[in-house]
Amino acid sequence: MSAPPDLPPNRHPAAVYRLLPSLLDEGLTLRLDDLALRAIGRWQMTGSPADRPTAVTARWRDGSGEPKSPFPSAYTGAPVLRRDLADLLGPGLTAAGDLLPVDTGDPADDYVLLLVTEIADCLDQRRSSKPRRATGEIKQSVFLPDALPTTLAAFRVPQFPTGVYWNAWSTHRLTDHLGPTLEPRLCWSEDPALKPHPDPWGF
CA dist 93 to 15, 16, 162, Å? Predict the structure, then answer.
């Protein structure tokens, strides 16, 4: 897979993260419509074009007066970004999936949901935790460095199709831009000095 033209040099060791809005930040987060969430999850499990959503409805959680988070979704498989952040990640993001418009009820908002279409068979199943029965979440993930789709901003794995993983370059680009409003949880790194989060998919 060739690198997107604006992909920066690999200044970081290979690493994989889960991203979510910071629990310490006071920015408003989004609650996705139940029908939209079910549609996304169904498509992620089946891969059927008939199940593929084309738009998403969401509403801001209570907290009038607080600023809106630029990365307002903590759903494991449904990341939402403000449009300028999608532009910041460029072709590496659009190569990872489709950007669906998010109707928040406020016409001034410009947010998109990243529907990750790229699935990479890059998990070291022998060294990783078994997926949890109820959610499919993998508590401890170990990846095969040579199989990682490092040119993509994000990807999914067949063993946990409802979870979205983020590569190091996209994570660092977002955290450099957003600072403490974004919480990156390390799932795995080829650098043994970096310790993964003990439960990256938990709250």
Answer: 17, 15, 18
Indicate the range of 9-13, 28-32, 33-37 predicted with least confidence.
Answer: 9-13
CA atoms within 13 A on the CB side of 156: 25
How would DSSP label each residue in 128-142? SPPPPTTT---SS--
Residue 139 backbone class (left: φ over 0; alpha: ψ -120 to 50; beta: rest) = alpha
DSSP 103: E
pTM given for the model? 0.92
Mark 159-194 as b/e (b = at least 16 C-beta within 10 Å).
bbbbbbbbbbbbbbbbbeebeebbbbbbbbbeeeee
**Amino acid (1-letter code) at residue 66:** E
Instruction: Tell me the one-letter amino acid at 60.
Output: W
Coil, strand, or helix at residue 119?
strand
Place 34 in a pLDDT band, splitting at 50, 70 and 90.
Answer: very high
In the Cβ-directed half-sphere of 64, how many Cα atoms lie within 13 Å?
A: 0
Over residues 115-125, mean pLDDT: 97
Per-residue pLDDT for 128 more than 70? yes
Angle at 22 between CA 97 and CA 203, to 5 degrees: 85
